[in-house]
Structure formats: structure tokens, C-alpha cells
Amino acid sequence: MSRPLTAHATLSSKGQLVIPKALREALGLHSGSEVLLTTESDGSLNLSPLKEPVDALFGMLHEEGRERVDVDEAILDVVREKHR
In whole angstroms, how far apart are CA 57 and each of 18, 39, 51, 61? Predict the structure, then answer.
């Protein structure tokens, strides 16, 4: 983020807070994102995005029609070829 963003939000009767779209986009938040909330001594509340778990990255490089490769087998092939 190049400059701080501010936005107004209202707490619902259920204690839910909707993070405005501009802030979600700036922080890279989407449905299912996890955040860390921290209170400060001055009464302010900080929200920090948590990094995505590795499992969330599964399939992100998938291309339609691309052949799947067994990485372990590919490494073994290179090692076998190198030591012939």
C-alpha cells in the first residue's frame, strides 16, 4: 500500500463488521481470508491479514490441458540420467 486508506463501517447487531471493498482489495482479502485483530493501548484496533496456508495454493498453477508431472519421479529421472 502506498498511502493509508480510511473508510467508515458500522458494526451490526450481531457484532459483524463489513470491511469496505477498497480496503479488502488493498489488503488482498477475499471470502475466507483470515485476519488478526489486535487492540492497542490507545483503544485503536489493528487488522492484519494472515498469510494463506500452503494448502490454499494448491492448483493455482494449473493450466487446462497441461500434463501432470510427478515431481519426485522427475527428480529421480534427472539423477539417473546424470549418473549414467
Answer: 25, 30, 11, 8
Delimit the domains of the chain by residue range: 21-82
Point out which residues pair with 46 in neighbouring strands. Answer: 38
Hey, what's the cell of 10? 458500522
Q: In the structure grid, which three cell numbers stand for residue 78, read together?
A: 534427472
- Largest CA-CA distance found in the chain, in angstroms, rounded: 71
Name the helix (H) or strand (E) containing 81. Answer: helix 71-82
Per residue of the chain (84 residues), give pLDDT as tens.
567 888 999 999 999 999 999 999 988 898 888 899 999 999 999 998 888 666 766 776 777 887 888 889 899 999 998 888
Answer yes or no: are the C-beta atoms of 26 and 5 closer than 8 Å: yes
For the entire predicted model, the pTM comes to 0.54
Q: Cell digits for 24? A: 479488502
